[in-house]
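forwarding from the other thread:

> can someone predict this with adenosine-5'-diphosphate?

sure thing
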Amino acid sequence: MNIVTAKEMYVWDRQAMEEAGIDGKILMENAGRAVAQNVEKLVDKRQRILVLIGAGNNGGDGFVIARTLLNKGYTVRAVQVVPDEKIKGDALAHKHMFLASNYQLEHLEKLLDLFQSIDHSDVVIDSMLGIGVEGRLRSPIDQVVEYLNQSKCLKIAVDIPSGVPADEGVTDFSGLKVDHTFTIAAPKISMFIEKTAPYFGEWEVVEIGLPTAKLKKAKRKLWEKRDVAATFPRRNAYAHKGVHGKALFVGGSFSMPGSIAMAARAGLRSGAGLATVATVESAWPSVAAHIPEATYTRVEEEAGSMVGVIDSGIEGYDAIAIGMGMGRKEGAEAMLRNVLEKSTCPVLIDADGLYHAKQLLDEVSVRNAPVILTPHPGEMAHLLGIKVPELLARPFEWSQRLASERGVYVVLKGPATIITTPEGTQYVETSGNAGLAKGGSGDVLSGILLAMIMQTSSVADALCNGCFLHGKTAERLTEDSHSQVDLLATDVVEGLSQTLRTFSG
Ligand SMILES: NC(=O)C1=CN([C@@H]2O[C@H](COP(=O)(O)OP(=O)(O)OC[C@H]3O[C@@H](n4cnc5c(N)ncnc54)[C@H](O)[C@@H]3O)[C@@H](O)[C@H]2O)[C@@H](O)CC1
Ligand SMILES: Nc1ncnc2c1ncn2[C@@H]1O[C@H](COP(=O)(O)OP(=O)(O)O)[C@@H](O)[C@H]1O
Ligand SMILES: [K+]
């Protein structure tokens, strides 16, 4: 499913009308009916519904919703919150249909009266403003939104909650916080931005008859269950360990032996055929105790940190993950440089490896085999030389910039993980929960991703499926046997088995 900006939505809408000849009034009817149908699932006929209608086409949808629900016997009051002369075009046509159906339209005259109506309603449907919002909310909608944000009634937004921008990059706004959003035709980018996402509540896309083929080739896609089903690697009955990849995990230090152990174990649990861990001697015993299935390569150390490089055999691996617990000493940077230059397979860089990668972005750019960077927002901001809030305001744009300038895959981690390919295609993967907000979760993800890369022909599919496997495992564990408070990264590693049983062959 495509994720759109406001501009892309308007272009799609115009193409539907001008090229496909679909009347805008029909699209509005479809939109209003689709939203009304969903409202029926949430509301019963005894509940009092208030539909708030604004000036643009979002308001037009509101006229259709109010008429549809009234036709079906729901208790609905419709209030137009803007003056009559502001209602134009298709919205005006639907206003006429509403009035000609003999339904009553109220007008906002005194705010106090409207506040009283809100107090006497169980459900408020917000069709005041949609993706056409510009700047901060103006009077009287700002006051209505402020009052509604304090109200206990059930709030449902049409397309997007009033005041909330559809795109990334807008940080100065005031908006309505709703319980449910029924968004038209496609999810909007702001649903995946930290600052705006909480305004939408639970959201769902409603289909209104826009021709899918007219939407220009997707630049951003939501990674869904059906994508997982179509691309998740299947085990071949005649397989042997060599078929599923030989992975090298480089990292660990005396003070941080756990990260590399978790990554390698997660890699094996996710289907890697063979795993070798390259780590310092002082970390080796504890790592080996956790993964007897792995083999080991010793790396020279100084005061517990890596200083040596891997002398031989690095060409023999199918994929390498580097950085977990490797520390920030200069020697570790030399190791990363060595891996980037000598190996010919995909290299995934995480954690401390990303710290060193900042100095090695030119080496990264010239590599022929894929490089995958898996930063959390702090690491990504460091790589780009910007502040975290700046990154979080425009994560799609920054990811695209880094991926295309350096020719790398970027996995920007978070509640909505954004996966960007070197060509600039972006995927959003939303599984997981705050149980994963704990040390070690990223290490586990690295191991899963590396295993997926070795088992899938498309790196992008592998990364999306790996994030899905990680997030779904956390979701399942916090439903079945853990809470979001106690969940550990190692629980996720062991929980992979059960998740894999449900969807891999
Ligand atoms: N294919 C589509 O895209 C369809 C879109 N539809 C609806 O149309 C909406 C977009 O319609 P519009 O472009 O008319 O935009 P809006 O319905 O968001 O309204 C924009 C109007 O709101 C006012 N406004 C803008 N910023 C404001 C602010 N900060 N404070 C107060 N008032 C402000 C201005 O009068 C402006 O003309 C969508 O969100 C969706 O609900 C549907 O009608 C069906 C088809
Ligand atoms: N609140 C959250 N909701 C969903 N996923 C989360 C949340 N917090 C963290 N995660 C996931 O957990 C992982 C954390 O990675 P990272 O920050 O690198 O952890 P660490 O450095 O501790 O290993 C990422 O995959 C991220 O998407
Ligand atoms: K709205």
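The first helix runs from residue 6 to 18. thats all i got for now
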